Amino acid sequence: MKKPEIDWIIHCCRNSVVCDECCDVENGFVENACNAHTHGMDRYNHPDFQLVLALPDEEICRILSTFGLWVQQGRRFSSGELVSGIYEDCDVKLETFIETGRKLFRVVIPDKNNVFPDDGNCMYPYTLQTVPTDLLWSKDCVLS
After folding, report:
1. Which residues of 90-109 are buried (b: 16+ CB within 10 A; e: fewer)?
2. Distance, CA of 55 to CA of 61 (rounded, Å)
3. Is the Cβ–Cβ distance between 136 and 52 less than 8 Å?
4. What is the pLDDT of residue 139?
5. Of 21, 63, 82, 125, which one has the greatest count of Cβ atoms within 10 A?
């Protein structure tokens, strides 16, 4: 079987990362937040994907690459959909968000009690997943 070609990219913007272009160090994100997202799902007529929890880079890439491979294989997703197959013990939810002016699907992960941020009583930092992208990049952001 032919190995699938990864023909999209993943950008992971997070604190303490050095920019490849300007060499500045990123430090503007709210603690435990990032903006990791794909570019290239449009070639499959599908929205890109985003994660905003500051998980380890390998985990972010695994999750976003899995969604990319599923789309490449013809699978289509919709906002509000619960998706199994990312984790063994829980589903993740896809929600529509705006990232630099484009609509994409944010992958929302439940907390350790399998509570999603919009279900109430969700633990921090999982609650960050409901915050608009532009508000995650602000040291002055006040989150309740």
Report:
1. bbbbbbebebeeeebbbbbb
2. 10
3. yes
4. 56
5. 63
How high is the pLDDT of residue 143?
53
* Residue 20, phi-psi category: left (phi > 0), alpha (psi -120 to 50), beta (remainder): alpha
Three-state SS at 125? coil
- pLDDT, residue 20, reads 72
Q: Kindly report the pTM of this predicted structure.
A: 0.90
DSSP-derived pairing of the beta strands 9-14 and 49-53: unpaired
Closest CA to 48 of 98, 92, 110: 98
Contact call for residues 10 and 64 (beta carbons, < 8 A):
yes
Q: What parts of the chain have a pLDDT lower than 50?
A: 144
